[in-house]
Design a protein that fits this description.
This protein is α+β, with helices and mostly antiparallel strands and 300 residues long. It is built from ten helices and two strands. The chain folds into two domains: 153 residues, no CATH class; 98 residues, no CATH class.
């Protein structure tokens, strides 16, 4: 039986740095490739030459995908590249692989790949420690980025996927807000000769309504103000000690009615086996004897 999704998530978190272990996978994909273990500062600079600026860029990189296709085609006899006998021009540079058999392409330098600048090929190979096409296809941060991307965007391809699972009935953390708050605040500048202060400024303070109770206080001049409405939505990113199934936020004394739709699937199997054996032995013996007596009379 394959690992559960929680085990797979824990395994994916072992591929990122300790400072990123608490981040959602979506934020890791949007982050720098240095979020992944194995991406050093020189490697980050080499990836930028290939226009790879995020973990998602690395997972969908055409250069790394080309190296992976070439390596896979060597052993996959059903591949079109294997049957054709050479790699297409959008994967490799024709001038660099003219006399190289397909089976040897994976051991060629990475400069034969399209997308690898000739002037920077050696620096990229040194920074990533990937001298050959095969090394580039097995680059650990690339494989980690692909695993994270597939886990997040293509869960149906995971071995833990249940094709009969109703996705609309399974609760997931971070998908819907567990609490929403909305409130309005009235901000007024009572003095017309005072300069307006930006609400985002550190010098801004709300109006003290207590001043209106003072003597000679009141609405003597036109004031400038704004009615601001704030809305907050709270999402649960992760839940410890099990999965959060239901969450409802209630005010003091408030009651509500909830309709819960649950789904379960149960499979059972039975097997019965019966063995019978009989043995019968019959032995009949019949004896018969016939005696004929002959009576003789003798007269003297």
């Amino acid at each position: 039986m394959s690992d559960t999704k929680s085990d797979m998530m824990s395994d994916l978190m072992s591929l990122v740095r300790a400072s990123s272990r608490t981040l959602p996978l979506a934020d890791i994909l949007r982050g720098s490739p240095q979020e992944l273990l194995g991406v050093s500062t020189p490697a980050l600079a080499a990836l930028k030459i290939l226009e790879i600026n995020t973990v998602f860029d690395l997972s969908t990189s055409q250069v790394f995908a080309a190296a992976t296709k070439i390596v896979a085609a060597v052993s996959d006899k059903t591949s079109a590249i294997y049957q054709f006998g050479s790699a297409p021009s959008d994967l490799v540079k024709d001038s660099a692989v003219a006399d190289i058999p397909l089976a040897e392409l994976q051991f060629s330098p990475i400069k034969i790949l399209q997308g690898i600048p000739d002037a920077s090929a050696d620096n990229i190979a040194t920074a990533l420690d990937t001298a050959t096409v095969r090394d580039l296809s097995l680059y650990p941060p690339y494989r980690a980025a692909v695993r994270i991307m597939i886990f997040l965007y293509f869960p149906a391809s995971l071995p833990t996927n249940d094709p009969e699972e109703p996705t609309d009935l399974i609760p997931r953390s971070g998908e819907y807000p567990i609490e929403k708050v909305q409130y309005s605040t009235l901000l007024i500048n009572p003095e017309a000769d005072e300069l307006l202060i930006d609400v985002n400024s550190s010098k801004f303070t709300p109006l003290d309504l207590g001043k209106l109770a003072l003597e000679n206080a009141g609405f003597k001049t036109v004031a400038f103000g704004a009615l601001l409405t704030f809305t907050q939505s709270w999402f649960a990113q992760r839940v410890t000690l099990g999965q959060l199934l239901h969450s409802v936020t209630l005010a003091p004394g408030e009651s509500t009615r909830i309709a819960v739709i649950d789904w379960s699937r149960k499979s059972s199997a039975s097997q019965a086996e019966s063995i019978s054996e009989s043995n019968s032995l019959t032995n009949d013996t019949t004896h018969s004897r016939s005696i004929n007596e002959v009576t003789r009379s003798v007269k003297t």
